[in-house]
Amino acid sequence: MSFTSHMITSLKHNRRKRISAFEKIKNFKEGNNIQVSFDGKATPCQLKNIREKLSDENRKRKIKNILIFIVGMSTIIYFAGFAKY
């Protein structure tokens, strides 16, 4: 049964080296990371525009989800009406 031992040694040699979570964290701090900075300075007009834009996007998303739900439920009810038990 030497083929089993050859299979095991082949698997050992082909196994990739796994990096532990601690090494990932250590290398993350030492690597070339992009530093994102935000100065937090926005005019009240810009903040108002951002709020309006977000509320419009949320409203459109909500309307889209409601329409999809209504269409889906109506098709289910429609086909359930034709089902014969």
UniProtKB/TrEMBL annotation:
Instruction: Please give the start and end residues of each transmembrane region.
Output: 66-83
Keywords, ordered alphabetically: Membrane, Transmembrane, Transmembrane helix
| Name of the protein this chain belongs to | Uncharacterized protein
Q: Species name for this entry?
A: Polaribacter porphyrae
